[in-house]
Amino acid sequence: MNTAYETLLVEEREDRVVVTLHRPEARNAISGRMIAELHEVCGLLEADPKLLLLTGHGGVFAGGADIAELLRRGRDEALQGINSRLFERVRRLPMPTLAAVDGWALGGGAELSYACDLRIAGPDAVFGNPEPGLGILAAAGACWRLPELVGESVAKQVLLAGRNLDAAAALAAGLVIDVVPAEKLLDEAHALLDRMARSSATALRLTKLVVDSPGAHPVADDLAQAVLFEGQDKKDRMTRFLEKRSRA
User: Fold this and answer.
1) Identified catalytic residue from 12, 111, 188, 243
2) pLDDT tens-digit profile of 211-240?
3) Which of 11, 40, 69, 131 is catalytic?
4) Is 131 tagged catalytic?
5) CB 14, CB 40: distance < 8 Å
6) Which Pfam families does UniProt cross-reference here (predicted)?
């Protein structure tokens, strides 16, 4: 186990890397530090392509982005695409990626799971994108990845109507490959990776490259987010959120 990370637990195996999001004090919320450390992991996987298993510590995948950090970000930070650039990098990793999700996968946490090639869920998994309630949009891929994954109708239910997809709904929508008991989640995830590892690594890489070849359009996300990040509504909503949480 690599202990050089502050927000991740990273285990490097012969044919895969297992990454556990580890900010238990914040429901594994995606912070700037976690973004930087995930970039480091991407660098490793780009230099030495392996399968990636991504999961969360303590029965939670990731309870969203770090709201306190988002509140401080403005137009310039939105245009940097801090989250979207990372998630696009995850999406374009050479070898297949799998998110093992139990508990909350909200906001940026959901978008990180959408960036993976496959998802497997525990019974308590919940996917959702509540960003408009905070005065912003899901600008790290959900607005175009989620319709590709589950169809426009279900995606709009999540993105516009605030619907959360529990494990059963995620399975019915095709968002996850399977729902398994929580105590078997990682074992089943590794079994899935074992099955892929038995295939030709080169064939997997080329198949993924061809499937993903149409590309994406993160710039549109960043431009829209830049406008929202400058608005008073975003600041007010995030301030109220943080004040409410501090009183809880």
Assistant:
1) 111
2) 887 655 677 788 878 988 998 989 999 999
3) 131
4) yes
5) no
6) ECH_1 (PF00378)
